[in-house]
Protein: Endonuclease III
Organism: Enterocloster hominis
Amino acid sequence: MERILNALDKEYGTEYRCYLNHETPWQLLIAVIMSAQCTDARVNIVTADLFKKYDTLEKFAAADLKELEKDIHSTGFYHMKAKNIIACCKDLVEKFGGQVPDTIEDLTSLAGVGRKTANVIRGNIYNEPSIVVDTHVKRISRKLGLTKAEDPEKIEYDLMKVLPKDHWILWNIHIITLGRTICIARRPGCGQCFLREDCPGREE
């Protein structure tokens, strides 16, 4: 584990970075809701105009459902996403005084927010050590032999046991980068991977 973390730190650095463009906590929350089954690059294209049109939380809460669906259409699953965004923003305004909460319990009480989204917010906004299990983290953590679980929440707890807390947020950042550049799902570049020697799931 120590060799893997040292190699990742050396290759990608230890700076926290978020791939979704945002200026406020609520903008990040909306962007993460839209990122389900959609690339961060596509979400960033959509939010560039979206956050100008709806420049306050209250405007999102009062948005017309059909109009918002058109605005976010290209992110896919736009019916459910638009419905969740409006309901989520209403709760933020009415129940949380316009503030994005910082606990798993409060965050997951919001429409469209599961543990993954809650942990993105906790890690990026509140710097709370948290492990985000997306498709890259699930696939590569299993490949590295760090978990055998399929359920994201079980994977999250398995990783908590083996990763030092100061690498909980970094694990997601590093593994997403690795999954997009080298350990690509359809064609993993095992021959060029700097974790090859410590990866039991490597292809010969």
